[in-house]
Design a protein that fits this description.
The protein is mainly beta. It has a domain of about 150 residues: Methylamine Dehydrogenase, Chain H, CATH 2.130.10. Helix content is about 0%, strand content about 55%. The strands form seven sheets. Strands 3-2-1-28 form a four-stranded antiparallel beta sheet, with no helix packed on it. Strands 4-5-6-7 form a four-stranded antiparallel beta sheet, with no helix packed on it. This is Target of rapamycin complex subunit LST8. Keywords: Repeat, WD repeat. InterPro entries: MLST8, Quinoprotein_ADH-like_sf, WD40/YVTN_repeat-like_dom_sf, WD40_PAC1, WD40_repeat_CS, WD40_rpt.
C-alpha cells in the first residue's frame, strides 16, 4: 500500500481508509477487543500498526488486519497515551496514565525497559538519534530519557505543575515544542463571580548538541495557540509548520522562521467538535485530523481547505496515523 491512513475511535473500531476516495477499505474487528482506541502508530516499513487500546497495546499486520493481533502487550495498568516505533522497527515505546514509559522488543515480544515517571504520562516521542526519548506528563514536566544510560538526564517545568498535554520534536532534532492548558480564574466584585478561562499555550526550546557549552534545552519562545484546551501539537516533516489541535474545533497552522518565530499562517475550520489528533503527509503538503464529531478530514496545507472527509465512526474519532512515504 502506497498510502496508509488509519483512524481510531471511542467506538472501539480501527478503520483503514482510501485516502483519495474517502472509502473505508477495512475495519479491524471489535470482537474480543474492549476499550477505546487511544493512540495509533504505523511502523516505518509500513508492515505493522500499533494501537493503544485502553490498558493494552495490540500490534497488527497491516497486510492482514482482519487477523488477530500479531503481538499484544499487557503490562500497563492505566490508559495507554502514547505509542512510537523505533526507526528500524526493532522496538516500540509506550506511555501511560499509570505513570510508566515502557519499551517493548518487537522481535522477542518482551518488555525491554520500564521507566517510572512518577506521574501520568501524556505523550512520548523518540529522538531522531534513536538513543533518547522525550516525554511530557500530568505534573507539568518534560523529561529526556537516555536509553544508553537508562536514566532521565534532563527535566523541564516551564509552567510549574500545569499539565503538559503534547510534545513534538523537529525531524532534525533541533527544536522541541510542548503544549499545555493554562486555566486563569476570574473574580468579580462586590458579587463574587468565578469563571475559568483556558488558554492552550505552546513552549519552544532549541535543542543544542550535548558536546557544546550551551545548555541542552534553550528556551526561545512561548505563545498562546488557542483560547480553549490544546490537545495536540505537531511539527511538519519539513519543520516549516507547526499544527495545533484544540477543543475550539479548529486546527491552527503556524509558520516557523529560522530564528524560531511562530506566526499564525492559517486556521483550518470545518470540524464541529474537539479536534484530538493530527498527522502530516511525508511531503508536508497535507494534514489529517480526527475529531469528536465522529469524522476525520484531509486538509490541503496550501489552501487550508478540506479535500476529503472520512465518515463511518459512531463515536469520537480521537487518533489517526498516516504513512505515505517510502516503506
Amino acid at each position: 500500500m502506497s498510502v496508509i491512513l488509519v483512524t481510531g475511535s471511542y467506538d472501539h473500531e480501527i478503520r483503514f481508509w482510501e485516502a483519495w476516495s474517502g472509502i473505508c477499505s477495512r475495519t479491524i474487528p471489535r470482537t474480543g477487543e474492549t476499550g477505546q482506541i487511544n493512540r495509533l502508530a504505523i511502523s516505518p516499513d509500513k508492515r505493522l500498526l500499533a494501537a493503544g487500546i485502553h490498558k493494552k497495546v495490540c500490534i497488527y499486520e497491516i497486510a492482514n488486519p482482519s487477523a488477530p493481533p500479531q503481538l499484544q502487550f499487557d503490562g500497563h495498568t492505566g490508559n495507554v497515551t502514547a505509542v512510537c516505533f523505533h526507526s528500524e522497527g526493532k522496538w516500540l515505546v509506550t506511555g501511560s496514565e499509570d505513570g510508566t514509559i515502557k519499551i517493548w522488543d518487537l522481535r522477542s515480544a518482551h518488555l525491554q525497559r520500564n521507566y517510572d515517571n512518577e506521574a501520568p504520562v501524556n505523550d512520548v516521542v523518540v529522538h531522531p538519534n534513536q538513543g533518547e526519548l522525550l516525554s511530557c506528563d500530568q505534573a507539568g514536566r518534560i523529561k529526556q530519557w537516555d536509553l544508553s544510560e537508562n536514566i532521565c538526564t534532563h527535566e523541564l517545568t516551564p509552567a510549574g505543575d500545569i499539565p503538559m498535554r503534547s510534545i513534538s520534536l523537529a525531524s532534525d532534532g533541533s527544536c522541541l515544542v510542548a503544549g499545555n492548558n493554562k486555566v486563569r480564574s476570574v473574580f468579580r466584585s462586590p458579587v463574587v463571580i468565578f469563571s475559568s478561562l483556558t488558554q492552550g499555550r505552546c513552549y519552544v526550546w532549541k535543542i543544542n548538541d550535548e558536546r557544546s557549552d550551551l545548555p541542552r534545552f534553550q528556551a526561545v519562545t512561548k505563545f498562546q495557540a488557542h483560547n480553549k484546551y490544546l490537545t495536540r501539537c505537531l511539527f511538519s516533516p519539513d519543520v516549516k509548520y507547526l499544527a495545533t489541535c484544540s477543543a475550539d474545533t479548529t486546527v491552527k497552522i503556524w509558520s516557523i522562521s529560522l530564528n524560531y518565530e511562530f506566526k499564525l499562517d492559517k486556521v483550518l475550520q470545518g470540524h464541529q467538535r474537539w479536534v484530538w489528533d493530527c498527522a502530516f503527509s511525508a511531503d508536508s503538503a497535507y494534514l489529517v485530523t480526527a475529531s469528536s464529531d465522529h469524522t476525520a478530514r484531509l486538509w490541503e496545507m496550501a489552501s487550508g481547505e478540506t479535500v476529503r472527509q472520512y465518515n463511518g465512526h459512531h463515536k469520537a474519532a480521537v487518533c489517526c496515523a498516516l504513512h505515505d512515504g517510502a516503506g
